[in-house]
């Protein structure tokens, strides 16, 4: 109930002071983005193994829900390129019906993540992992479009990477020159058009021009009509997917992959938008909206959706500043479907393929590979490992491996930064009774072994009678570090020696108190500063070189 009381879509905040001028700019932005979304939605759906109608329905339903209930003022939701590889694999392995169930399961997960206030946790994923799997997805999208771009006569592309390469190689003798020339011309048009004219999005220009040329010249290319029979003039009827509880188990893993990727991409898109409009989105509210959208879209035959960075950026550039623009975007798509659906049957698939090729190329941001040498080995290894695993295996394996590798590097780095060094005190030689050590960094499971050398001081034969640990520069102690301190204290006490801890900060003090370590150590042995510890230990008032 507490989570629901914090449920507040950005739409409510945006309506304060809303006027006709702002509505006009939102309408213009929404119409522009809606027109842009049409070819992208169809292209993403076809590349995912779905019908073009499914992509449009997803953009309409999910886009509307995300705009109405989302945590960003300008987020545009719908199908995106990042889902292509995942969705295609699910369709091949489990079928379209189970894809819809997977999407709804992912929606429930996203909703739960938002209600549990886990939105900020997504930001803990290292940028090296995100960059690596984004580039891997871009490669897989490029690979998936070779068939349509070249017009190859291949029954169906395998979902697996090497199987896909083998199928494309075997199909090369069936290249369609008309498809190649039309696709190449559309790619050139998409790239060149924004350099001169920005008002009309280049994918829309390529869609209209490519379709017109193919029809006027009667080019022998495959179209939406020849493969799918066109798209319906309206939304499909509401229908609950048939659920077999026995089949839900195998669908959990792909559903979690959809939820994870949807959460990452939507919050990345919202963050990009924040930087463009100097605003701050609510990540938890955004996850709630993403969950609702992915539950709603399959009820009308749609599939998974998330925040779309390219469409969101276009919305901002065209003047959209409130969720009203996103609502207009969905209504524009609906109007196009109602009025112009019959014309969609003439759209060549190679034109949609050309649009996706450009999207994937921009998505990859390949220039980062040239600059990798500027970064540490840790960053390079995580990015490249995630990239390769995404391409060869799948996103889930890649993200898991990337996170584990990043965690290992982080632990190693933090362990290296943690130091335990002796502080000189008045007195000569190793026979002085009071030994002072300064601990620096984080005394956690990866660095707790730094205390081990001090255990030798607890032996009866050693001259040291008192060990003082100056922990003023320790930012964190975990249970493994606490266990090592307890071991040191226990061995010292067993041999009639004492341990003093000085200058402990709030987090270590809290752990010492909650664990009962203070009682074992003795409150008088836990000192506010080093001078007090030395005074109680019976040693010199201050170590050499301290103030």
Explain what the structure shows:
The protein has 547 residues and is α/β, with parallel strands linked by helices. The protein has 3 domains: 23-165 and 222-345, no CATH class; 372-416; 418-537, Transcription Regulator spoIIAA. It contains 24 helices and 7 strands. The chain has a 5-stranded mixed β-sheet with strand order 3-4-5-6-7. It has a two-stranded antiparallel ribbon with strand order 1-2. The longest helix has 30 residues, at 248-277. The radius of gyration is 30 Å and the shape is elongated. The model has no long low-confidence stretch (mean pLDDT 90).
Write the layout of secondary structure elements.
Blueprint lengths: L1 H4 L4 H5 L5 H28 L4 H18 L7 E2 L5 H11 L1 H20 L11 H18 L1 H5 L10 H11 L5 H20 L5 H15 L7 H5 L19 H30 L5 H14 L9 E2 L1 H9 L5 H18 L8 H16 L2 H4 L6 H16 L2 H23 L1 E5 L10 E10 L22 E12 L1 H16 L3 E5 L3 H10 L1 H5 L4 E2 L2 H8 L10
Parallel strand pairs: 4-5, 5-6, 6-7
Antiparallel strand pairs: 1-2, 3-4
Helix pairs in contact: 3-4, 3-11, 3-15, 3-16, 3-17, 4-14, 4-16, 5-6, 5-13, 6-13, 6-14, 7-17, 7-19, 7-20, 10-11, 10-17, 13-14, 13-15, 19-20
Distinctive features:
Transcription Regulator spoIIAA; five-stranded mixed sheet; alpha/beta; 24 helices; 547 residues
Number of strands: 7
The main sheet comes to: 5 strands, mixed
Shape field: elongated
Helix percentage range: 55-70%
The N- to C-terminal Cα distance equals 54 Å
Q: Please state the CA-atom Rg, rounded to the nearest Å.
A: 30 Å
Based on secondary structure, the structural category is: alpha/beta
Strand order of the largest sheet: 3-4-5-6-7
**What is the count of DSSP helices, taking H or I runs of 4+ residues?**
24
What amount of the residues lies in strands?
Answer: 5-15%
Could you name the ranges where pLDDT drops below 50 across 5 or more consecutive residues? none
Number of domains: 3
Mean pLDDT equals 90
